Amino acid sequence: MKIGIDIDGVILDYQRVLNTYGDLYDFIELKKDGIINRHELYLRNRYNWTEEERMNFVNKYFLKLSRQTNLIPGAKHVIHMLQNEGHELIVISARGVMIEEMKNVAIEIFDKENIKFNKYYWKQNDKLDVAQKEKIDYMIDDSYDVCKRLSENGIKSIYFRDKEMKKLDTSEYLIEVNNWGEIYRILKGSVK
Q1: Among 154, 142, 165, residue whose Cα is nearest residue 72
Q2: What is the pLDDT of residue 190?
Q3: Which end of the chain, N or C, is surrounded by fewer C-beta atoms within 10 Å?
Q4: pTM of the full predicted structure?
């Protein structure tokens, strides 16, 4: 089976770290209560920051926070089990779009943790093209928009949803999870 995997919010707990420091930046540095939608993944939709405030946050914190991010519990274990079972694991990530060096930080973390993938696709804002090209059987992502778009185009998507994120209606092509144990159960259930 070919499995596409996003990095941030799926393998690395970057989104939780980002939200924490986004709230601190908003409240302490900007002296605002600028959250407009707590259920949004993207800063531009989560806070009522100006473009200058958003870019200041990106430039000041993105790389620094990327280095502080830990693995999501169970990710390494399940990734290794899937590889040992012969599945092809392909990273499809937007990492590197805003700050190129964030890609290198992810690679360093993966090397340190002995996590390898069959292929890597970095800077992917539109993951549908890669998923179709690679004939992905399942895509694991924490983005509402990505999972919605992939599932609407016939690609089975596993929406790794944090409790604050928007809900999606499940379907034949979309399943919602919140831990790697559930991901493994779903993937094993489809291989019977």
Answers
A1: 142
A2: 67
A3: C
A4: 0.90
